[in-house]
Amino acid sequence: MAAEPLSQKEIEDRLRELPGWAFEDDRIVRTYRLGSHVAASALVAHIAAVQDELNHHSDLTLGYNTVRLSVNTHSAGDSVTESDFALAERVEALAPAHGAS
Fold first, then answer.
1. Which of 101, 99, 91 is nearest to 38 (CA)?
2. Which of 83, 87, 89, 101 is such that its CA lies 20 to 30 A from the CA of 56?
3. What is the C-alpha to C-alpha distance for residues 66 and 54, in angstroms, rounded to an integer?
4. Cβ contact 14:88 at 8 Å
5. Kind and range of the H or E run holding 11
6. Are 20 and 66 contacting, i.e. CB atoms less than 8 angstroms apart?
7. What is the pLDDT of residues 14-53, one digit of tens each?
8. 59-62, strands of its sheet edge to edge
9. DSSP letter (8 states) at residue 65
10. What is the pTM of this model?
11. With contact defined as beta carbons under 8 Å apart, do 58 and 72 qualify?
Protein backbone atom coordinates (compact mmCIF):
# COMPACT_ATOMS: atom_id res chain seq x y z
CA MET A 1 0.00 0.00 0.00
CA ALA A 2 1.32 3.44 -0.89
CA ALA A 3 2.08 5.89 1.87
CA GLU A 4 -0.54 8.59 2.35
CA PRO A 5 0.50 12.26 2.51
CA LEU A 6 -0.06 13.94 5.85
CA SER A 7 -2.12 17.11 6.10
CA GLN A 8 -0.46 20.39 6.99
CA LYS A 9 -1.99 20.17 10.48
CA GLU A 10 -0.73 16.62 10.97
CA ILE A 11 2.75 17.72 9.94
CA GLU A 12 2.68 20.69 12.32
CA ASP A 13 1.43 18.48 15.17
CA ARG A 14 4.15 15.89 14.56
CA LEU A 15 6.87 18.55 14.32
CA ARG A 16 5.98 19.72 17.84
CA GLU A 17 7.24 16.32 19.00
CA LEU A 18 10.56 16.79 17.17
CA PRO A 19 12.36 19.95 18.34
CA GLY A 20 14.85 21.19 15.77
CA TRP A 21 12.91 19.81 12.82
CA ALA A 22 11.05 22.11 10.42
CA PHE A 23 8.84 21.93 7.34
CA GLU A 24 10.45 23.53 4.27
CA ASP A 25 9.66 23.09 0.58
CA ASP A 26 7.40 20.05 1.12
CA ARG A 27 10.03 18.28 3.25
CA ILE A 28 10.91 17.90 6.89
CA VAL A 29 14.44 19.08 7.57
CA ARG A 30 16.99 19.26 10.38
CA THR A 31 20.61 20.30 10.71
CA TYR A 32 22.77 18.81 13.47
CA ARG A 33 25.99 20.39 14.75
CA LEU A 34 28.74 18.12 15.97
CA GLY A 35 32.13 18.58 17.62
CA SER A 36 34.23 17.61 14.61
CA HIS A 37 34.19 16.46 11.03
CA VAL A 38 34.91 12.90 12.14
CA ALA A 39 31.89 12.95 14.46
CA ALA A 40 29.71 14.34 11.68
CA SER A 41 30.96 11.65 9.29
CA ALA A 42 30.21 8.93 11.83
CA LEU A 43 26.67 10.24 12.24
CA VAL A 44 26.19 10.18 8.46
CA ALA A 45 27.31 6.53 8.35
CA HIS A 46 24.93 5.63 11.18
CA ILE A 47 22.01 7.47 9.51
CA ALA A 48 22.75 5.70 6.22
CA ALA A 49 22.49 2.32 7.97
CA VAL A 50 19.14 3.27 9.53
CA GLN A 51 17.85 4.49 6.16
CA ASP A 52 18.77 1.17 4.56
CA GLU A 53 17.07 -0.70 7.41
CA LEU A 54 13.88 1.35 6.94
CA ASN A 55 14.22 1.35 3.14
CA HIS A 56 13.52 5.07 3.31
CA HIS A 57 16.21 7.57 2.38
CA SER A 58 16.68 11.28 2.93
CA ASP A 59 18.85 13.79 1.21
CA LEU A 60 21.81 13.79 3.56
CA THR A 61 24.44 16.54 3.46
CA LEU A 62 27.75 16.40 5.30
CA GLY A 63 29.48 19.68 6.15
CA TYR A 64 32.64 20.27 8.16
CA ASN A 65 30.88 19.69 11.49
CA THR A 66 27.24 19.58 10.38
CA VAL A 67 24.81 17.01 9.05
CA ARG A 68 21.60 18.08 7.31
CA LEU A 69 18.68 15.81 6.53
CA SER A 70 15.86 16.68 4.17
CA VAL A 71 13.17 14.08 3.63
CA ASN A 72 9.84 13.43 1.97
CA THR A 73 8.27 10.39 0.33
CA HIS A 74 8.74 10.17 -3.43
CA SER A 75 6.11 7.45 -3.85
CA ALA A 76 3.53 9.77 -2.23
CA GLY A 77 4.07 12.54 -4.75
CA ASP A 78 7.03 14.02 -2.84
CA SER A 79 4.80 14.67 0.18
CA VAL A 80 5.54 14.19 3.87
CA THR A 81 4.24 10.89 5.27
CA GLU A 82 4.49 8.83 8.44
CA SER A 83 7.59 7.17 6.93
CA ASP A 84 9.41 10.50 7.05
CA PHE A 85 8.59 10.95 10.70
CA ALA A 86 9.61 7.37 11.49
CA LEU A 87 13.02 8.12 9.99
CA ALA A 88 13.27 11.46 11.83
CA GLU A 89 12.46 9.78 15.14
CA ARG A 90 15.13 7.13 14.60
CA VAL A 91 17.71 9.79 13.76
CA GLU A 92 16.71 11.82 16.83
CA ALA A 93 17.27 8.73 18.98
CA LEU A 94 20.80 8.09 17.68
CA ALA A 95 22.11 11.65 17.22
CA PRO A 96 22.93 12.33 20.90
CA ALA A 97 25.28 9.34 20.99
CA HIS A 98 27.37 11.17 18.39
CA GLY A 99 27.35 14.42 20.35
CA ALA A 100 24.92 16.10 17.94
CA SER A 101 22.96 19.14 18.93
1. 99
2. 101
3. 23
4. no
5. helix 8-16
6. no
7. 999 999 999 999 999 999 999 999 999 999 999 999 999 9
8. 22-24, 27-33, 66-71, 59-62
9. S
10. 0.95
11. no
